[in-house]
Amino acid sequence: MKENMKFLIPLPYSNKNATALIKKHNAQLGSHSNSFQLNDNILHCLKDKVEIGGENYNAYIYLDENRRVDLGIFFLKKRLIVL
Q1: What does each C-alpha distance from 66 to 15, 19, 76 come to in angstroms?
Q2: How far is CA 8 from the centre of its chain?
Q3: What's CA 57's distance to the chain center, in Å?
Q4: Residue 46 contacts by C-beta under 8 Å, 6 or more apart in sequence?
Q5: Whole-angstrom Cα distance, residue 70 to residue 58?
Q6: What single-letter DSSP state applies at residue 79?
Q7: What are 38-77's pLDDT values in tens digits?
Q8: Which residues contact residue 66 at a Cβ distance below 8 angstroms, ignoring those fewer than 6 apart?
Q9: pLDDT of residue 2
Q10: pLDDT at 3
Q11: pTM of this prediction exceeds 0.90
């Protein structure tokens, strides 16, 4: 079945495999060597392997700089409203 899979399936952050991959690559993810531009966005990407159900799959970890900044501003605004 694995050889027939030709598409991406995003893992939710609540998945332990996703969390482990993010923790493992967090320091490297923001590196310029892992960066590329897509339209007006700067993205970072790393490739690793992940085991799910006894099968190994390619895992691609993406970081969208604009989204990270937007989320930081969103949570800061919520925090300031509470204060």
Answers
A1: 24, 21, 15
A2: 13
A3: 16
A4: 25, 28, 29, 34, 60, 61
A5: 28
A6: H
A7: 998 889 999 999 998 898 889 999 888 888 889 899 989 9
A8: 41, 42
A9: 57
A10: 66
A11: no
In DSSP notation, 9-49 reads -PPPTTSHHHHHHHHHHHHHHT-GGGEEEETTEEEEEEEEE
Q: Which pairs with CB-CB distance under 8 Å and at least 24 residues apart come from 73-76?
A: none
75: region left, alpha or beta (phi > 0 left; psi from -120 to 50 alpha): alpha
Sequence spans of domains, the chain? 9-82
Q: List the beta bridge partners of residue 43.
A: 36, 64
- For the chain, the straight-line distance linking the first and the last C-alpha, in angstroms and rounded, comes to 53
Average pLDDT, the chain: 86
SS (H, E, C) 45-73: EEEEEEEECCEEEEEEEEEEHHHHHHHHH
